[in-house]
Model the fold of this input.
Amino acid sequence: MGLIYLALYKGKGKLFNRLIRLWTGSIYSHCEIVMPDGRWLSASAMDGGVRAKRIEQNPEHWELIPVPWANTRLIESVFDRHEDAGYDWAGIFLSQLLAIGMHNKRRMFCSEFCAVALGFHGIGQRFSPVLLGETVHRINRLPFVQLAHGQIERQAERTPHG
Done:
């Protein structure tokens, strides 16, 4: 069993990426969940909504944050419920730009999908890529998460790889 990662996009991207970075005051404009099997899961405006794809991980364009506490079954469940649903344009406008928290319950935008998939139910639409990245970093620094993560790494080192 491999690790799950939160991938934050810091590449140049398109006009939409620049607008997100400008609005959030961050270098990040998009996020994805990277599964152990290599699939990248997210909601993408360019791809029309919630989807899975394989993305070449270029360190100049992506920051990967390990998420040892992520629940694979929850992520897959959120993905299955929303796969091929359109991009939540109303949600990104009403939750991010106007900050009133309204969104389409069927459709999602990237950080909303990633937040809900990581267990932030009911508040996923409140996250931007940078806020979600900061939250994951803070959770990863909690002593019990560090302890559990260290135990997982030690078990992986002892397990023979066929």
In short: Residues 5-158 form a domain with the endopeptidase fold (from Nostoc punctiforme) fold (CATH 3.90.1720).
